[in-house]
Amino acid sequence: MERQRWLAVLWLAVGTLSCAVLGAWHRAGARGSEPAPVPPSGGPDAFGYTYDVCVPFSWVEATGGAQVPRGVNVYRGPFPIGFRLRFYGAECSQFWVSSNGVVLFDDRGSGYEQRYTNMGIPSADMPNNMAAPFWDDLRCNLSGQVRYQVFGQEPDRILVVEWREVGVAAACAPPITFEALLFEGSNEIRFQYLHMTANPWGNGRGATVGIENANGRVGLQYSFCQPAVWDGLAISFRYPGAATPAATRSATPMATASPTATGGPTSTATGTPTSTATGTLTRTATPTSTCTAVPSATGTPTPTPVATPTATCAVTPTPTDMPMPTDLPTATPTLLATATEPPPRYAVFLPAMAAHSESGRQGPD
What we know:
Largest sheet: 10 strands, antiparallel
Shape: globular
Oligomer: single chain
Strand content: 25-35%
């Protein structure tokens, strides 16, 4: 019995050490020194996409949708988007999911599975044609899961792909939770982050966040190995000419087909995902993120944060210069009396003071 206990302790220690070594190894290489701050808005790229972090955060639960079969360094699909999404000028009706935090819009074979090591965007190296809310070496084979669900009715449907409680290879715990939302009509792609910063690598310092076209020559990167992700963050990637996005619309989940998941040449998908067509869109009450947490290193003007009620401030009157008293002429002294100088005149100024309070929120490790 004692021998078995020691073997269990040894096995746990080896597992923890291997997790840390694997994370350090896959990030080995010149990453530069301290990364530059990430601007709160960016673009346009060569196609015209822009991004903005000053959008409402409104978490959408996809736990009632279809579950993607688990795996490590694998991709699954195709799955139906549920509507026609325009992405870099092409119409997409289906998608694939990578266990490493990427939504893909085509099937290029086993190259996707080998890319657990993320890179900057754009890059002609695979994978391409993707939306990456958190591209990193993730672990979806234990308690973590990936689910997708379509909400709403035409022409305002939303596809939600959620990575829930997945691990990061560099730090197996605590798990992280994030999602990608695809909007019908506006073709907006929005990334949202629910639980990230408790994990030492959950702030994005080892991940890539952004979008990229089919040949990898055009893309828009939000961050690459930079601590620019925090709990309550929402990033909107806007299609050229699209209107400013509003809060996520409330809707009833739409029933979708039950496709059989397929993987690349080296992956094996097990099970048939099914989606649930009942229930209502659920949001987790999380404060709206603000724009003050990520300073701009390039002089980009900081967008105005989402307005929040604040106490009104009484205007403090500006004091005006009061004329100083002038010296009165002194009478010529005589032997009988000397003229005395009148007392000076002083102005009294009492400024008003008002209290001012302000509220906000921030997040990226």
